[in-house]
Amino acid sequence: MHSGPAIALTEISKRFGDGPLVLDHVSLSAQPGEIVAIVGPSGCGKSTLLRLVAGLLKASNGSIEQAGPEINPAFIFQDATLLPWATVEQNIALPLRLKGHSRKKQEKVARHWAGRVGLEEVLHYYPRQLSGGMQMRVSIARALSLSPNLLLLDEPFGALDAITRNRLNEELLDLHRDTDWTAFFVTHSVNEAVFLSNRIIILGRNPGRVSAVIENPLQFPRDSHTRESLEFQQRVAETTARLHEVLGCESA
Ligand SMILES: Nc1ncnc2c1ncn2[C@@H]1O[C@H](COP(=O)(O)OP(=O)(O)OP(=O)(O)O)[C@@H](O)[C@H]1O
């Protein structure tokens, strides 16, 4: 059973300074351990929404309520942002080092997470020696090193080839099975949104608004065979149709 935080945004609006309204009365929620996918066109406020959920930005209006454990968020971005002069192990241990944990603890935690993402053989490699997919695994391991209970993923796999992306989707769900986090996952891929999420939020833009909330009852566990199922393909087709319906000719 998952014990991550439950999060509810109610009527959230956001404006930067005296600029235009970026988010307008956005309401959405995640239950403990749920993965909520956010899909929408460029500039509709997806990244802003993640930063609001993490408490890095303050909403202009509306409220964000959390239930369960106090949130301990971690971000994963499309750019792995690894330190080029540090090894895989040192990159994964960085958050612990910054928090002043002992070397022994840094090593133990980094090796644990490197093992969980399949990097135990390359602990002493530098980022330039890794493929894009491996760099993303380091980024995931680094994000998980402080045992977050809320993951905010901002198009993390958008720059990867389709095969690597699918594999990382599967690995992320494997990690999710035995770790306690609630997640908001921004993606431009309907396929990815359907594969990963419990619920898909479609955001429209100018200003960013919830255009549709699509429940996704596709059963867990999901693996590579899930994509071949008729149910998965139907959900992708229905979600794509809904996206076109609510966003008109705007592409996500
Ligand atoms: N710190 C800021 N100050 C002023 N405006 C900002 C700031 N952050 C974001 N914005 C504006 O808010 C709007 C939404 O930006 P945001 O990055 O949240 O969109 P997005 O949906 O994540 O876009 P993309 O899919 O292209 O990454 C944009 O018009 C952007 O210029």
TrEMBL record:
Keywords: ATP-binding, Nucleotide-binding, Transport. GO terms for molecular function: ATP binding; ATP hydrolysis activity. It comes from the Bacteria. InterPro entries: AAA+_ATPase, ABC_transporter-like_ATP-bd, ABC_transporter-like_CS, ABC_transporter_ATP-bind, P-loop_NTPase. Residues 7-230 form the ABC transporter domain. The keyword 4Fe-4S does not apply. Pfam families: ABC_tran. PANTHER family: ABC TRANSPORTER ATP-BINDING PROTEIN (PTHR42788:SF20), TAURINE IMPORT ATP-BINDING PROTEIN-RELATED (PTHR42788). This is ABC transporter ATP-binding protein. It comes from Oceanipulchritudo coccoides.
